[in-house]
Amino acid sequence: MEEKKNKMDSRRKFLLQSGLAAVAIPFTQISCQPSKDKVVEVENEDSFEFAFLTDIHIKPEMNAPKGFQMAIDKVNELNPDFVITGGDLVYDTMRGNYEQSESLFSLYKDMSKGFKMPVYNCIGNHDLFAIYEESPESEDHPDYKYGMWERHFGKTYYSFDHKGWHFITLNSLDVTDNKRYKGYFHLEQLEWLKQDIEKVDKSTPIVITTHIPMICTYSQLNGGEGSRTANNASDVFKIMENHNLKLVLQGHIHWKEYGFVNDRFHFLTGGSIAGNGWKGRRHNTKEGFVKIKVSGNDFSWEYIDHGWEAERLKLADNTI
Ligand SMILES: [Fe+2]
């Protein structure tokens, strides 16, 4: 009870400081509701926040642990109800040997214990163990492909509920015959998805998290070969057709992109923690993560700079 009161007090304090409690000023970033409805949020005890951190690419080099720790500290300061990650937790196990890959997952696991709230992980292409030709490990290894991730984090696709919203994390990856990764939702998972949402009321807002995007403007803007999206994403959209799909959270591209489709659902590609391999921005998107505030049937979002760009520039200056 006391904890709940403190949370409400701190929320009121935030709203007062930002002016939201006094007047109906919309959030600085995209909101999916007209600003007048934001006033309702102040009174809505069922509103909640969560953070979406994607493409962490943790490794011991390049001050990556320092950068990730800054993100963890910022999330703890914001104090959302939980964290969802968008895959590529580590860099990299696709080509790796067992010891190196295991140490990367251990590093991620140890560091992510620093989050003061639950963390729901998603698998990315760099988390697929030993799938590339150049890996010294064989396909018979028990940790091959999804195995190492599953041993550390459990199932690669699952769902959970929070305050009337249904959250689904998908595994958007498979391996091609010539040993490359591809964006694909395998059939066993699609069957599970059908069964999972059968139990969900048609009006319940649903959030899907996927590493490989289901919708993305990258290829339209940049051309080049290959798609940056999962090639059977439409199968997932068809399954969701008669449900209240609200938001698709995506990783992989390391850029920030938002869209709202047919007055039905939103998609958000959430930048990255690692930027361009910890060297700088990728596609001009600053390193950061997304904070999402849910209120009733709607949400607003904000891209959070956890200070890594400034810190990395300072570190680079000191080495000159
Ligand atoms: Fe990535």
TrEMBL record:
Domain Calcineurin-like phosphoesterase stretches: 50-255
One Pfam short name: Metallophos
Protein's organism: Arenibacter arenosicollis
Protein name per Swiss-Prot or TrEMBL: Metallophosphoesterase
Signal peptide region: none
